[in-house]
Specification:
The complex is a heterodimer of chains A (240) and B (115). Chain A contains nine helices and eight strands. Chain A is globular. Chain A has a seven-stranded parallel beta sheet with strand order 4-3-5-2-6-7-8, sandwiched between helices. Chain A has a single domain (27-239), classed as Rossmann fold (3-Layer(aba) Sandwich), CATH 3.40.50. Helices cover 41% and strands 20% of the residues of chain A. By secondary structure, chain A is of the alpha/beta class. The longest helix of chain A has 19 residues, at 221-239. Chain B contains two helices and six strands; from the N terminus they run αβαβββββ. The longest helix of chain B has 18 residues, at 3-20. Chain B is elongated, with a radius of gyration of 17 Å. Chain B has a single domain, classed as hypothetical protein PF0899 fold, CATH 3.30.2320. In chain B, β1, α2 and β2 form a beta-alpha-beta unit. Classes of the chains: A alpha/beta (240), B alpha+beta (115).
Chain lengths: 240, 115
């Protein structure tokens, strides 16, 4: 008998026995989800309506929020958290509307995460707010996967971006509670086909509420404000 | 490109479980990735190859089980697989689109093979 052969086979057998399966069955996003749930509990405690506003860069998130702050100042006490890779230009622009505004500079991170929001919340007195608007990083891909603890997820796309945006980013649009078609005042100039856009939205996200508006021209804003009023009233009555 | 962050999270969870099991080396990391998870598979695989260096999973293979979208039409009480590349979930019976999804948003770490 060749002893070396025996030793080799014993070694191999040991290795095979040591190799084993570890079952995990865990969501990769579970850590973010834990922070999101903690945020959600804090929002509920203060009866705060929280919006997560998402779009590609340049769709008009900041313009929409600035106009909303101005027009709703008498009705709601609003706080704003703005996420950008760099600069605090958007926060500066929104601060001019008089709302308490905090800028999160994400550096190279292409989205906001629930933990970032959790930290940012410490800068606000939540008991003095009715509405918290989170302007996410301009990006229609990555932020879709990150729950921040919001009640109301709003996705914008502008008439200048074309009718097929919802088809190109179904992951984002399918998770939207509401979709805003922005820059309606430019629709004719850029030959935007509103009917085709609405049809695309219906196919991709049939349950989302759709608003067509221009924050700059002040077109169609009332429907949007009514939605905020309605959601805020529902939140108040559900919890009291 | 949030896949680098996601690859790191996957490796953190994997190393945590492997250490608890007393393992010294992770051979396989098995994932379930839904078509609407928001993750680009190729980007995740690339990010994993870079992020795994220096971890217990330095020699590990990523095994990805891709899950198609499965939707549900309430009117027809029908569950169906969505084959449309744009993710449009139209019921094969009544042709109406549905927002009700049964599968496709998963991003799960299912198991490890360790030594």
């Amino acid at each position: 008998m060749d002893t070396r052969d025996v030793r080799f086979s014993i070694l191999r057998q040991e290795n095979e026995e040591r190799e084993r399966i570890v079952q995990i069955e865990k969501g990769v996003m579970s850590l973010n989800q834990r922070y999101a749930d903690a945020n959600r509990a804090r929002f509920a405690e203060h009866k705060l309506l929280v919006l997560n506003v998402l779009s590609s860069p340049g769709s008009g998130k900041t313009a929409l929020i600035a106009r909303t702050l101005k027009d709703m100042a008498a009705e709601f006490r609003v706080g704003v958290i703005v996420g950008d890779l760099a600069t605090d230009n958007d926060a500066e622009r929104l601060r001019m509307s008089g709302a308490e505004t905090l800028q999160i500079q994400t550096g190279t991170v292409c989205h906001l995460e629930a933990a970032m929001i959790g930290q940012a919340l410490d800068a606000f007195d939540l008991s003095k707010l009715d509405l918290l608007i989170i302007e996410n990083v301009g990006n229609l891909v990555c932020p879709a996967a990150y729950d921040l603890g919001e009640d109301f997820r709003v996705v914008l796309f502008s008439t200048t971006e074309g009718e097929d945006k919802p088809l190109k980013y179904p992951t984002m649009f399918k998770r939207a509670d509401a979709v805003i078609i922005s820059k309606l005042d430019l629709a004719d100039t850029v030959e935007f086909d509103l009917e085709a856009a609405l049809n695309n939205l219906y196919l991709v996200t049939p349950k989302a509420t759709v608003f067509e508006l221009s924050a700059k021209a002040g077109l169609g804003m009332e429907g949007w404000y009514d939605e905020l009023r309605h959601r805020f009233a529902r939140l108040k009555s559900a919890q009291s | 490109m949030h896949e680098v962050g996601i690859a790191r999270t996957i490796l953190d969870i994997a190393e945590d479980y492997a250490q608890r099991e007393g393992a010294t080396c992770i051979k396989t990391v098995a994932l379930r990735v839904g078509a609407l998870s928001g993750v680009v598979p190729e980007a995740l695989e690339f990010a994993f190859e870079v992020a795994k260096l220096g971890t217990l999973a330095a020699d590990a293979r990523l095994e990805v089980d891709y899950l198609p979208i499965i939707a549900y039409c309430e009117a027809c009480a029908l569950e169906f697989e969505v084959k449309d590349t744009f993710g449009i979930a139209q019921c094969p019976l009544c042709t109406e689109p549905t927002a009700s999804l049964r599968q496709g948003q998963e991003l799960d770490l299912s198991y490890l093979e360790v030594i």
